[in-house]
Amino acid sequence: MVVYELAHLIERGYGPAFQHVIDRHLPEWHQVRSLLWYRPFRKSAYCFD
After folding, report:
1. What is the C-alpha to C-alpha distance for residues 15 and 12, in angstroms, rounded to an integer?
2. Where in the sequence is the domain holding 20, given as residue range(s)?
3. How many angstroms separate the CA atoms of 34 and 38, rounded?
4. CA-CA to 28 of 20 to 30 Å: which in 1, 5, 18, 40?
């Protein structure tokens, strides 16, 4: 998280400069991001199948 915030001090958005900083200092960030955003399919509590 610290690297992410420091990268935003260098680059405001999520453009190529931001991605370069993140890739250089946190090479596994793509995998971490995908794990954080992974949400397995769940049925609704109101589904009575």
Report:
1. 8
2. 2-36
3. 6
4. 40
Asked if residue 44 is part of any domain, the answer here is: no
Q: What's the mean pLDDT in 35-45? A: 64
- For the entire predicted model, the pTM comes to 0.52
- Please check whether residue 46 lies inside any domain of the structure: no
How do residues 10-38 score in pLDDT, each as one tens digit?
A: 888 888 888 888 888 888 888 887 887 76
In a domain, 42, yes or no: no
CA distance linking residue 2 with residue 16, whole number of Å: 19
Tokens at 1, concatenated: 């998280």
